[in-house]
Structure formats: C-alpha cells, structure tokens
C-alpha cells in the first residue's frame, strides 16, 4: 500500500538526533575561555641561605594548569620545589636554601589550557647576611611545636621587626594560608599570631611565619602543629593470674590511634582506700605486685597520648590469694583459775592474710629450750582456752600463733604466768610513754580487774649488762623513772604484787633517753705556734659518759691576753673559729697578731647545744722581725770625728718578739749620693737607747739609720738622718 507526503522517521532513529541537537545547544550556551591570573607573583628580595616562595594561580575554562619556568625551561633542582594546589590551577615555587648568584633570576609562571597560554614574570634578588640593610625584616619570635586536643584553640606565635614594620603572613605545608576562606575559624591576630579555633585533624601540619617589607622577606623556622583526640577507654581488664601478693591483667587497647603508654589504677575495696597508680606501661599486660594477701581489689586502666590521659576502663574486681598470717595474735593474757589450770585469751592478728583456721598455744616452764620441746595446745574457732595439769608454784612462758590453710604465722611475744591463785597476772600493754634526756615514762594496764594489787616492782638496768636496780611503788598505771643519764639505753620489766605474792614479770622493753648538751669539755687541750701569725690547737673528745649524745662538732674561741696592737684584749669579745667537724680534733688559728699571748678555749656540742668550755689555755704566737723602726732617732755632732746617735724603742705591739739589740748603719754622702758600703755598729742590749760613732772624717756629710732586731732578724730601718761633722 503506497503512502504519500514527507517520509516519517522511526523512533530509534529519532533519539540519537535529538541527543545531538541537545548537545549542540548546551555547548553553545557554555562559552570556553582562555586562562586568566587570579594571583600574580611579586618580586622578592631574600637573604642568602634563607627561603622565598612565589605564588601563582589562574582561572579559565577548561581549568588551566600552572607551571614554573626559569629561562624558558622547567625549573629542576633539589633546592627548588613546585607545590601545586587548586587541582593544578595554582602553584608555589619555593627555593631553599637561597644561593647567590645562581638563584638570582627572572622566574616565569605559565598558565595554559586548550584556549590559550599566558605568562607572568617575577624577579628574585638575594643579599648576603652581612650586607643586609638596617630595615631588613627579622623574626624575633617564631612558632614552636605545639600539640593541641581536637576542638580546642591552637595559637601559633610570631613576632617580627624591621623598617618599615614588616607584614606577617603564614604558610602551612609550604602553601599560603588565607584566613578569609575559613569562615572565621582561622584568624591572624594584630600581634601577628595565627589563631585556629575548633581545631581539627586537617589543621595538623608544618607552619611558617613570613615577615616582608620593601627591604626583603624573612621566613621563621618551621614548627609542627599536632591535633589529637584524647584516647578512648581501653577494654575492661581481664585477670589472668593471682597470687597472695600480685595480680596479672591483660586488656584491649580500645584505640585505633597510637597510645604513648597506659596507666593502671588499683585500690583495695574498702571505704577509705585510695587509688594507687602505675604509669609508663607500654604493653597491654602487666603484673601488679606488693598487694596484701586475701584482699579484694578494684583495677582499671586508662590510655595516654601526647594530649593527655583519657578516661579509665570499666573496673575489674579480684581477690588475692591467702598466705600464712604476717603478724601474731595480739594482747595475749593468762590467768590462773585453779590450783593447776590457767585460762589463756588473745585477739586476732592484725594481718591474718586469709581465713584463720585456728591457733596454737605453746607453753613451757623452761623458756631456754627450743620451741620444738615446748608443749602445744591447739585451738579451733575460738580466741580463749584453758590449759590443765600445770605444776603449782612454777612460772610458765606462753607464746601463741595463728594459722591459715597456707601455713603458720609468727609467734607472739612471750608472756609469763605463775601458777599460784591470788597472785596478779603479768601486767599487759607495758610500753614507753614520754621520754626526756634524764627520764622515761612507763605505762601499762593490769592483767585483770579486782586482782588485789597492793604494789608494783619495777626492775631496770643501764644497757643489757648493767647493774639491775629496783623501784617499788603503789597501785598505778604509769611511772616516771628519773635521774637517768642522757643518750643511754635502759631495759625495764614490771610485775604486780598482791597479798598472795609477786606475779610474773613482763618481757623486757628498752628505751634510749634523749640527747643533751655535753656535760664536760674536751680533754688534753694543747697548742703550739707554727708561725708568728698561727697557732695549732688540738684536743681529745670529752669522756664518753659525758658526751650525752652524738657529737656534732667543736667550737674553738680565742682572745688576746691584755691590750693588743689591734685594740682587742680581755675586755673585747672572743673570736670564734668556724665550727670544727666532730671527726677533727685540731684546728689551725690563722691571721693572729705576732708575738702575742692568747686565751684559747674549746667546747663540744651535740644537736641539742654546746657543752662547757675548757679552762682557758695561754698560748703565744712565734717571734718575727720587728714591725717598725725605732722611734725619735736623733744625731748629735760631738766633734770633727765623732757623732752620738739616740733613739727610743718601738711600741710593744710593733716589737714582734724579744728585742735582742740595735744596729746603726752609717755611710758617707757626697752630692746626695752614698759613697761606699754602709758601715754597721751593733749594740747587743735590748734596752740600749744611744751609741757613739767615732773615727769619722772632718767636715763630711753622713747618712744615719737605726734598726732593731730579734732572733728572727732585722726590722725596718728608721728614716735616714743627714749630719755634717765639724771641721778639723
């Protein structure tokens, strides 16, 4: 059947045509464009050895690609790096460290796409550090490594100086930071610091502060910023092993990120107990030691990273194993209840280390025997028992121990009981109270009430082997023993007395009296002169019984006897040497006056204070040459060949020894010059005050000086006296 009119397209053929037309329409509406720069690099002046960065960015359709050239070629060097951003539409050219002159050049930024290519140039100049202009920027304070918890604020500090004041910008991982693109989360403060609020992991990186002005650009040293989340709690610990004193636990880290170390906290489950801490644990398995036996503990674990300590895990509860008791039963008491029977009672140990299964009471009439020969009385589920078949009138010694399923604990201290009805029991809780240097207070409690105690007898001795002394006094619960020696150990025991007789004595207790000042001075004080200005003083310690404590040192004091040249003397305050250690028994007194008598005393001291001084010992320093010339030297011309020289002796403080005589030196003088060697005339009299010199030349000028001498030598000469003999 024939059809007429235009041909009709079938549907499968129509669809591709429609798609093509739609594509053509869309292409015509989306105009392509060549590249255009949105960030243009600027010329830079850097410092040799420093850093510069050129920033270049472009836009266009399709998105252009930006690259850097030097002299028309791609830059290629270990020191020159190109860092791309914005999917290649931006690139930073970073040069570090700068080298002159090789890096000084024109650098080209090229942006290209299918629609075209554009370039822009930037010049780099480099100045040596020693040739920098005065206003060149300087980083006064650069950023430092910082670790911040996620969501907290991080502040990277920067301060710079220069003329004019430099502008501060920031780079992160070698790319410039644009605070305006962070919706206010990142701010650059007026000080130049970079403040990052609500920090997140993407803020982590290497930060640089850059200061620039017309003189050039300077980069700070880079500093890393780390952003972390506190660690999560580890998994609940699992107990893998327990002993009487330790618990071993393991746990799951519970943290995908690295953990620096773990902290274990544990405590005994009692109302007042506090957590103990073990830190710096780098594994997820640990044995906690030093625990108490048969005790329930609560244990938890927390993780620590560079930010800090995270929350703890859920606690695990466990109980340590049993052990033999660590302490003996307490307050052992015995009472005679019939002619041959006694009742013994006690209290539980302070440290049972488990469930007490029972007690063993050991008793004997001869406590010098080994424990294996003592009689044993076993007790279960009770803290009181009776023991029969005792020997009347005898004194028994009793010890008690507790035991658990693991073993026996230690013995109690022994108590004593006399098998005689009506005799008081051994006083209990016999102990020391207040102590001084000469007294010791003793306190106790009667074994039982209504024992008819009429007196107590106290026995004590000095040391273990001293003479035993006794004191008897009426019923009381304390007594002060007086008249004791300081720093001395005493042993005490006590028994109660009734009308029926004296009871058993307590075990010995010992106590040392407190220290006191020494009660005697050091002994055998001696001194010797080692020079004209020193004295060596020696001694021996006070008698041992008079030291009254540990000697802490010695005090040496000295004083001039009578008036002295320096103004000191008996009327002034004695001079005290620095403290001499207790290990030393001599001291050298220095810077003393010559040929001078001193009173020297020595005292010893303990921590309480100094004891008495020794009797003053008179010591004299050694002689020396006279310290001054004779006084008031005068010369009288007798005739043409003789002169008389007169003088006065120097003051005692200047003599420095026993004056043995004087020497007169004379020499002929012409035209102000000495002629020949001086002649000396000696007068060996300590009290001489004049001398006649003969045999001189008439009408001649002579220079005369006088000096005194001791056994140590000549002293200083007097000022020269010039005289002229008479004419012939």
TrEMBL record:
Keywords: Disulfide bond, Glycoprotein, Immunoglobulin domain, Receptor, Repeat, Signal. Residues 233-323, 328-422, 426-516, 521-624, 629-728 form the Fibronectin type-III domain. InterPro entries: FN3_dom, FN3_sf, Ig-like_dom, Ig-like_dom_sf, Ig-like_fold, Ig_I-set, Ig_sub, Ig_sub2. Residues 307-329, 560-581 are annotated as: Disordered. Residues 35-125, 137-226 form the Ig-like domain. Residues 1-31 form the signal peptide. It holds the Pfam family fn3. Transmembrane segments: none annotated. Coiled coil: none annotated. It comes from the Eukaryota. This is Receptor-type tyrosine-protein phosphatase S-like protein. It comes from Lates japonicus.
């Amino acid at each position: 059947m024939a059809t007429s009119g235009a041909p009709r397209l079938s549907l499968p053929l129509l669809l591709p045509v429609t798609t093509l037309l739609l594509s053509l329409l869309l292409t015509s509406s989306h105009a392509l464009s060549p590249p255009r720069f949105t960030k243009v690099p600027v010329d830079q002046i850097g410092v040799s050895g420093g850093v510069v960065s050129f920033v270049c960015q472009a836009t266009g359709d399709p998105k252009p690609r930006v690259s850097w050239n030097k002299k028309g070629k791609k830059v290629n060097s270990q020191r020159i790096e190109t860092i791309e951003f914005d999917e290649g539409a931006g690139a930073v050219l970073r040069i570090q460290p700068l080298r002159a002159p090789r890096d000084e050049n024109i650098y080209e930024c090229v942006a290209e796409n299918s629609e075209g290519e554009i370039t822009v140039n930037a010049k780099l100049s480099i100045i040596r550090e020693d040739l920098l202009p005065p206003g060149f920027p300087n980083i006064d304070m650069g950023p430092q490594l910082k670790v911040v918890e996620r969501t907290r604020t991080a502040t990277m500090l920067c301060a710079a100086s220069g003329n004019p004041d430099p502008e501060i910008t920031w780079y992160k991982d070698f790319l410039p930071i644009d605070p305006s693109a962070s919706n206010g989360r990142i701010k650059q403060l007026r000080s130049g610091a970079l403040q990052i609020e609500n920090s997140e992991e993407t803020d982590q990186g290497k930060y640089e502060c850059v200061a620039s002005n017309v003189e050039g650009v300077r980069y700070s040293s880079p500093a890393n910023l780390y952003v972390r989340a506190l660690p999560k709690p580890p998994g609940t610990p699992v107990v893998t092993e327990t002993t009487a004193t330790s618990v071993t636990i393991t746990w799951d880290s519970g943290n995908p990120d690295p953990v620096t170390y773990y902290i274990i906290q544990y405590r005994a489950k009692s109302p007042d107990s506090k957590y103990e801490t073990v830190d710096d644990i780098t594994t997820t398995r640990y044995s906690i030691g030093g625990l108490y036996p048969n005790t329930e503990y609560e244990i938890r674990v927390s993780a620590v990273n560079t930010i800090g300590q995270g929350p703890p895990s859920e606690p695990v509860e466990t109980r340590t194993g049993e052990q033999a008791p660590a302490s003996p039963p307490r307050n052992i008491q015995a009472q005679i209840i019939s002619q041959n029977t006694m009742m013994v009672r006690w209290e539980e140990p302070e440290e049972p280390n488990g469930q007490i299964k029972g007690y063993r009471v050991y008793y004997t009439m001869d406590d010098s025997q080994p424990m294996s020969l003592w009689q044993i009385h076993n007790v279960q589920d009770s803290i009181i028992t009776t023991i029969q078949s005792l020997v009347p009138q005898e004194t028994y010694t009793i010890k008690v121990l507790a035991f658990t399923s693991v073993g026996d604990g230690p013995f109690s201290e022994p108590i004593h009981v006399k098998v005689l009805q009506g005799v008081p029991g051994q006083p209990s809780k016999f102990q020391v109270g207040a102590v001084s240097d000469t007294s010791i207070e003793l306190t106790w409690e009667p074994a039982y009430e209504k024992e008819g105690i009429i007196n107590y007898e106290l026995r004590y001795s000095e040391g273990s082997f001293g003479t035993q002394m006794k004191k008897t006094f009426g019923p009381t619960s304390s007594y002060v023993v007086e008249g004791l020696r300081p720093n001395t150990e005493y042993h005490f025991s006590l028994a109660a007395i009734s009308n029926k007789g004296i009871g058993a004595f307590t075990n010995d207790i010992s106590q040392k009296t407190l220290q006191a000042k020494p009660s005697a001075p050091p002994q055998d004080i001696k001194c010797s002169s080692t020079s004209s200005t020193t004295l060596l003083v020696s001694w021996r310690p006070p008698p041992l019984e008079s030291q009254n404590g540990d000697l802490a040192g010695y005090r040496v004091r000295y004083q001039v006897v009578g008036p002295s040249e320096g103004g000191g003397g008996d009327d002034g305050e004695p001079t005290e040497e620095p403290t001499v250690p207790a290990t030393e028994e001599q001291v050298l007194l220095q810077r003393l006056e010559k040929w001078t008598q001193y009173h020297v005393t020595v005292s010893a001291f303990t921590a309480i204070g100094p004891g008495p001084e020794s009797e003053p010992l008179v010591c004299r320093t050694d002689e020396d040459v006279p310290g001054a010339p004779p006084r008031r030297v005068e010369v009288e011309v007798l005739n043409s060949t003789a002169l008389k020289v007169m003088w006065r002796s120097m003051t005692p403080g200047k003599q420095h020894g026993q004056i043995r005589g004087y020497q007169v030196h004379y020499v002929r003088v012409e035209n102000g010059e000495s002629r020949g060697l001086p002649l000396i005339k000696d007068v060996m009299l300590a009290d001489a005050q004049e001398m006649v010199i003969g045999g001189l030349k008439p009408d001649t000028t002579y220079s005369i000086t006088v000096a005194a001498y001791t056994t140590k030598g000549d002293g200083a000469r007097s000022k020269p006296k010039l005289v002229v003999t008479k004419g012939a």
